[in-house]
Amino acid sequence: MELGNQIKKYRSELQISQEQLADRIYVSRQTISNWENEKSYPDVNSLILLSEVFQTSIDKLIKGDIEIMKEKINEQEIKKLNYYGNIFCVHFAITILSAVPLFFWLEQLAFIPFGILFVITMYWALKVEKVKKDNDIQTYKEIVAFLEGKRLDEIQKQREIGKRPYQNVLKGIVAGIVTIVVCFLIGLLFHLLGN
Questions:
Q1: What mean pLDDT value characterizes the chain?
Q2: Whether the Cβ atoms of residue 54 and residue 47 lie closer than 8 Å to each other
Q3: Strand positions, DSSP E, the chain
């Protein structure tokens, strides 16, 4: 972060100590030291007071930090999307693969464990969708760009927004077909093993 260096620079230009600066913005000398050594970051009120003391804009004071913050937020969101996505995929596979065996062995009672698996899978699907919604990513191209730490330009974004309804319908159809095929194959396998 650049703010620590900025505080040191402006403080030395004004020729004031950490203690004097701390008194002016109502914090401890240790807090100023932590900011300058990048151990902590000032809150919004402190940034406003710093900008007033240094007679500069907050933009100049925190220059460079905004991009670093955006990158960190982006990295965290990418990790979250990958984590939730992986858990969802595992639960989805377990739900699909367990459907036929559960109904084969437990018959009517299979609705209970299958329902529990289904609810857990949907929970993780909703977590994935929340991350996608929070970051305004819906289409495959937007997801790929997001995972690479990029954003689409405005024209590309508008094109992708136009594709969203069609892609959502297509995703639903493909998911349904895959589920039917997998369940059919598992059912066929159990039928062959049962005979």
A1: 81
A2: no
A3: none
